[in-house]
Amino acid sequence: MSNWNNLLNSLRRKEVWGTESQKQTTNTAFGRVEIERDYDRILFATPTRRLADKTQVFPLEQNDSVRTRLTHSHEVANLARGIGMRLAFEYKEDIFGDEAKDICVERDVPALLAAIGLAHDLGNPPFGHQGESAIGHWFKTNSDKVFTEKNADYVKDFTEFDGNSQTFRLLTKLQILNDSFGLNLTYATLASLLKYPVCSKSKDDAIWDKHGYFLSEEEIVHDIWEQTGLQKGVRHPLTYVMEACDDIAYSVLDAEDTVKKGLASFYDLLDHLECWQAEHCPEDNVIANVVASAKNKNAEYKKEKLSPAELNDMSMQMFRVYAIANLVNGVVSAFKEKITELKSPNTEITSLMKVSEGAQLCKALKKFDKTRGYQHKSVLKLELEGFNYIHRLMSMLWVGIHGRLSESENSMTPFGKYAYQKISENYRRVFEDKNNKMPIPYREAQLLTDAVSGMTDSYLISLYDELNALYHDANCKNSN
After folding, report:
1. pLDDT of residue 182
2. Domain check: are 194 and 305 in the same one?
3. I need a labelling partner for 295 at 20 to 30 A (CA). Which of 169, 236, 333, 479 fits?
4. What's the rounded Cα separation, in Å, for the pair 239 and 212?
């Protein structure tokens, strides 16, 4: 069983594997513990700012009060930090025991949870989960021209592309400063970022339904496991907390955004929850308490002279307060009660939310979000447009990527050269690195996913429009 001294390892990979000159860094801690510095590094990183123009649920949303991926990430970080404070201060002895004597859990745990909450979606491509689907579909459709060995271990990294694996790659390799250690985060933070502690080739043999790292980062992952006492298939205990905060954020707050967009009303939501409880969990006190509290507050607001829109909005705000409070309490209690199981390499727990008292409320809210928000025709239309943009842009960028290392004819055409130059210099440097041990087909495919997943929604559309016009002109000239 892992111990907290290893799980909260504040060493950085550069301190272990860097050259002497790389290890000599300027002291900029200024009173911060190492894991607190991780949060700050993530906050100031360029990919974090790009989340402001990435879809949470509603693509290309014009209403500024509806959440973007950045808003969502800050909210997850806030929830995670708050839970971390409670775990470290209220339940320190129960959770950390004697191991807490050698580490400052009161600072490390909230900071770590805030850091991974902020970082957890950094690798997600434009247009939300449709972006992931589009990338995977492109590789399945074009596998003959991309992969020389269709059954190679690495193919699933792309045909089953996952933003979680891209997040890990982004933070460990692609954010280049002056070396190859990425943001050089602590082992504790990197270990807890692995939401799915398996790679794509071993995913089918594990309890996890997704992969959390690519084969290109496998050596880094094994190093992290060795330093933290973890192993393949075993999550860091605090990863469960971050995942639960993600569940809270998108179940409750996506419902709020669905109402804010006018796709449903406050009363629609309460009706849904009451029907869900009657059908699935008549004895569930959490749903009953949240609905009763929200109804009482709504009745108070009705006595005031509010417009229907104000009444709807204010009632939803208070619903959010009650729902989050109940779900957070459930997560804290579940973590405290299940800590021994969560630290065990043989645990069968895959979700902290599912074993908490708020499980049914969260499940009911996700169902509401799906039926009234995600599947609304306006959302589906924009998601389809995003899917098509990504698919077509990948085909154009591929012209500049495929054969680039050998300077093949297509990649060296004027269009191929221009398309290649539109890819981030950081990403191109990693691709061209002579020390890159991955096969060339893998490197080419990965440069394509690095490029696309790093784009914002609006930049992807802008680049598509620009390249599409040039691509069309080039093809017309070649056919004449």
Report:
1. 87
2. no
3. 333
4. 12
